[in-house]
Amino acid sequence: MRFPPNDIISLVGEAPRFDLAESVGPNLRLAELIGPADTPGLGDMPLNYGTAQGDPWLRRAIAGMYETDPENVVVTIGAMHALFLLAFVVCDRGDEAVTMSPLFPPARTALEVVGSNLRVLPLSFERGYRIDLPEFRALLSPRTKLVSVASPQNPSGVAIPAGTLGDMLTAMAEICPSAYLLVDETYRQAAYGDDPVAASALALSSKVISIASLSKCHGAPGLRLGWAITRDPELRQQLVLAKFNTVISCSPVDEALALRLLTRRDRILAERRRHLALGLGRTANWISAHNDLVEWVRPDAGALCCVRLKPAKFDDVAVGRFYDALTRGGVRVANGKWFGDVARVFRLGFGFLAPYDLGAALEALGAALIQATRAAA
Q1: Could you tell me whether strands 18-19 and 331-332 are parallel, antiparallel, or unpaired per DSSP bridges?
Q2: 216 conformational bin, left if phi > 0, alpha if psi -120 to 50, beta if neither
Q3: Domains of the chain: residue spans and CATH
Q4: pTM (2 d.p.)
Q5: Is pLDDT above 90 for 152?
Q6: In the structure, what pLDDT confidence band is assigned to residue 257 with cuts at 50, 70 and 90?
Q7: Dihedral of the CA atoms 276, 189, 167, 69 (nearest 10)?
Q8: Helix (H) or strand (E) holding 307
């Protein structure tokens, strides 16, 4: 099969009562972008093709978040579109690509379906999903064309420090100097409360490609709007050509709404960061209350984290009972197997639900823990 199946596709199916598997914050409503005074402007919009590289004003707004030139920005249909186009453009069949695991499954699939030889660096719960530089270096070769990482990562929410990214670029310059470092920074601006927002990796090197979207931090996955930013003009031209030959352009309606969102981004992000901080705090309290049964890796940013059922309390049978109890209780978490991890680790999304519902969901999650361990006893 060209595209391998993965149960993560259930996230775009029918939702349960309490969805703790989601990786986003609450969805924006259209009314937050369009008021009565805005309707005439959108009503007069011609439904024509957009431009292949993306609306110039939108690219200018995106570039402003990275302190880069708007010409470096290529607008895509979500970050997943950017991931696929970059894999398709950079990697010929038989070339080598390096990525990390666990990771968002389509990010791996994009590299596999173009025929690249994929080399995977395992990141473990025990190490806090941090990169081991000697192990990373051992995966590189002169045939490496693309290194693809996310920071903060999905599913863990763990960010890669700038120093580590710099060391990775140094190793790449020595072993595979023509290779690019693709950094998915979709969660970069999803800081907690007044926490500082990490600087983009884009400034580290001209070999860095940054991608992101409006789906996670900004709460607008329905707009299907993302971008890739590169300072390499030849690569940028190839991305524009690849986009034109696959989808021609993005929807001008999506681009117009995206521009309105970005003009309001300071207010929108401030509200969502407060919401994420509250969700993170409640999750931390829940972990503390159940620390005899679970442990976690505290995330650096984003609406998600990784939680592990303690091996001393849950054998493989008990892990299965835990997931069965969740289903009966109308709760869903993201099974670690979706991302290449083990089943006793799960991704918990604390940003999607309203505060009251998150409290009820965590209570139901705790009840499932108790049910699984009591059955074992």
Answers
A1: parallel
A2: alpha
A3: 7-28+267-376 (3.90.1150.10), 46-265 (3.40.640.10)
A4: 0.92
A5: yes
A6: very high
A7: 180
A8: strand 304-309
